[in-house]
Amino acid sequence: MVNFLKLTQNEIKKVYIQKSTWVLYMLLALIIIGGGILTVTTDVITKEYGEDTWKEELQEENQKLTKEMEEEGLFADYNTSLIEINNYYIENDIRPLGYNAWQYVQENAMLVSLVSLFTIIIAAGIVANEFRWGTIKLLLIRPISRFKILLSKFVAVLLFAFYTLLFLIILSWIVGAIFFGIDSFNPHMVMDKHGGLEYVSVIKEIIFDYGFKLVNLFMMATFAFMISSIFRSSPIAIGTAVFLMLAGNSIVMFFAEHSWSKYILFANTDLTQYVGGNEPLIEGMTLSFSITVLVVYFVVFVCASWGVFMKRDVAGN
Amino acid sequence: MSKQAMKLINLKKTIGKKQIIKGLDFEINSGEVFGFLGPNGAGKTTTIRMMVGLMKITEGDVQILGKSIRSNYKEAVREVGAIVENPEMYPFMTGLQNLNHFARMIPGISKERIQEVIALVGLENAIRQKVGKYSLGMRQRLGIAQALLHKPSVLILDEPTNGLDPAGIREIRQYIRKLATEQNVAVIISSHLLSEIELMCDRIGIIKDGELVAIQSVNEISDTEVEKELLIHVQMEVKPPKSAIELLKSEFELDAEFESGLVRFQCPKERIPSIIQTFVQNGISVYQVEVSKARLEDKFFDLIGENSIG
Ligand SMILES: Nc1ncnc2c1ncn2[C@@H]1O[C@H](COP(=O)(O)OP(=O)(O)OP(=O)(O)O)[C@@H](O)[C@H]1O
Ligand SMILES: [Mg+2]
Fold first, then answer.
1. Is B91 on the interface with A (CB under 8 A)?
2. Residue boundaries of the structural domains of chain A
3. ipTM value of the model?
4. Domain at B4-223: CATH code
């Protein structure tokens, strides 16, 4: 029996040997480095608080923030929450860490949507391109079941997502370390956790922030993979998946009055609605409900992909 | 000695309501080069797709070394190497990367084996170039290399002479013959041009509209039948041609025609000496006599009709 690892290795190699993949990585690197430069040059961030003077520094900050609010009427909510956080530090006698690599990594969690987009692009092409190149014929006339061939491709997509995510996190941390320093290997900070202010581990926050976003990435990648397998066209797969990713929330909002709207995929991909005192999107939804819905969607996507791929007559284009 | 390598049993394919393959029954032996001949749209590629499991078989079966491609796919397909339609490879990888890729899909292919097939198809110099930069002939060779990696018992090549220059065709002919005789591989070659495969095939099966209309051993024709009765084409350069044509009519009851300076007619080979003798006796000068060898071609034309050849 052919080693499944070798099949996956083949698929991964084909992804990374293509220049277009490296363009995606370069884009991501550019955004991470650019973001670092932008933050260090224009943002008002404090690199470090003095050991003896940090309380005064925080109070100064508060005064500046208050003045900004009163004089310019800007950022009222945002500034208020910053002042509250500063007060929490002072009251609890905790010296805050300066802005550091960990915080930069945490802020870059929003770039996971870019990783999702890249994963969609890869998933959309991984089956369709074999048909476009005509290589599908050579791929399928081997003593390997079609089931396994498709599985190796799906695993390759997940591996791509994993590597890209790792790239995002590690490069963000390195860029962050260069521009802002590291400060600590187990950093803590005060955050607004809806239930009130809390002194929390930044690393734990990073894991949560990234983790919750992976749900959407995983579902949309599987969706694009399915379209790719059924329609053998990567533009169609990218188009539909990206459209749904962008329009997902609007779709849910549009149908919000209908009771069945809670069964829409996008009503369930954001699991943060169930943590930290958040309100569920639609009344009556629970975490286990959402997980069930996600699993059902996933099973449908997978069955459709494999069903079509295994049955299909491979003829000319 | 001649073991059955591949067997088609009442093979049928229906797509939608259209029956494309209407029941093929024949076998190919080990060490034999089998020509699969037919005009465009006859169903050659469709048949080949079923042979390798790319298309579902509607009815019937294909057996490779006795193993059914329907019920025992992995075991059966392991014995097959193929190019289906065009020799498509990953354009962004080098020839070697392509071969390594396909070698990883079958257990037990060594680095040495890969080098061996590269040498066999003569691609040593281009193997580290990107396939996107290959000429069609080079891709054809790489396609054959890929098909041979796992030492298949049956090699299926769909129009391998497509896009090759005469030298390339001759080269392919040589190593296909070599594979058949030295390694006892059964080779199936499809084509719509008889002249391109006639010289390398032992047997030729002619397919038209999804049906096998004839199956013919190439040697058989030249040795036995023709010697006796089969009509062959004769072209003569004679002077004066007009009296030669009259003489052929009166003495031999042959209808001859005069075309581009040559008198053409058909007759059994045995009668040629006496025709020449008669000509000489009647004062007709004979400058040249040519006997056409394309006998199979005629048979092919007869069977499928001249106009339908693409
Ligand atoms: N997917 C399909 N759906 C419907 N008809 C098809 C399909 N594939 C092939 N055909 C039809 O089947 C017939 C045989 O096609 P096939 O490609 O097997 O011919 P071929 O002998 O290989 O011809 P060529 O010499 O042009 O390569 C054609 O009439 C074609 O129109
Ligand atoms: Mg064809």
1. yes
2. 2-43+99-311, 49-96
3. 0.86
4. 3.40.50.300
